[in-house]
Write a structure and sequence with these properties.
single chain; mainly alpha; 43 residues
């Protein structure tokens, strides 16, 4: 199984810092994935 945390409405550096702190407390492997927006189109 997989668990995904999604953050919206915050700066990327703040989201990354928050998730890095959370990852340190979880007994799992994790990676940070960023979904970028295209011009005028939300993905």
């Amino acid at each position: 199984g997989r668990v995904m945390f999604e953050l919206a409405g915050v700066e990327e550096d703040l989201a990354r810092a928050a998730l890095e702190r959370a990852i340190q407390k979880l007994p799992i492997k994790a990676k940070f994935v960023v979904r970028r927006q295209q011009e005028g189109v939300e993905v």
